[in-house]
Amino acid sequence: MLYSEAMTAYELLRFVHVLFAVTAVGANITYSVWLAQASREPEHLDYTLRGLVLLDGRVTTPSYIMLLVTGAALVLQGNVPWGSSWLVTAIALYAVAAILSAFWYAPLLRAQVVALRRQALAGDAYRALEQRARAIGATILVVVLAVVYLMVTKPALW
Fold first, then answer.
1. N or C end of the chain, less CB within 10 A?
2. Contact 116, 130 (CB under 8 A)
3. Of 129, 12, 109, 7, which is closest to residue 52 (Cα–Cα)?
4. 104 vs 52: CA distance, rounded Å
5. What is the dihedral of CA 107, 54, 137, 43, to 10 degrees?
6. Per-residue pLDDT reduced to its tens digit, 85-130
7. What residue spans of the chain are helical by DSSP H?
8. Residue 6 backbone dihedrals phi, psi, to 5 degrees
């Protein structure tokens, strides 16, 4: 026998929250794939970087913002206390990722486009920006994956 029940507002909100998480984290993961492919075909690097700037500004960042909004709504509607150790830790890590992304990674991507157009791949400015962007991007990804781990497992941390 099939069991069918209408989705509650809370379940719908949780579903949308997970969709934003998949979109945001999935997009972040694709950055390294696109950049690796572009490094093998440098003639496409400018297009790739501009595409990542677009993806970051129109898909990834809005998805992370909506994750915060839907996550807060889930806590307000659900039975998870704001003081839960895993939630407090996840929110702190989310803030770290947001700060790194907004104040370092996104500007570095835009600066790479400018440096690439001015000096091409051989320019010291471009290579320095690329190295910093790679390190910050990897750091953001690790932090975001830690948040996903906390959200999925909800461990008691203290």
1. N
2. no
3. 109
4. 15
5. -100
6. 999 999 999 999 999 999 999 999 999 999 998 887 777 888 899 9
7. 9-40, 45-55, 61-77, 85-100, 106-119, 124-153
8. -65, 145
CB count within 10 Å of CB 2 equals: 3
Could you read off the pLDDT of 25-54 as tens digits, one per residue? 999 999 999 999 998 998 999 999 999 999
* The model's pTM: 0.87
The amino acid at residue 109 is: L
Six-digit token pair at 140?
Answer: 């953001």
- From 56, 61, 33, select the one nearest 113 (Cα to Cα): 56
Which one-letter amino acid corresponds to residue 125?
A: A
Question: Tokens 């909506």, residue?
Answer: 66
Provide the 10 A C-beta neighbour count for residue 139.
Answer: 15
CB count in 10 Å sphere of residue 88: 15
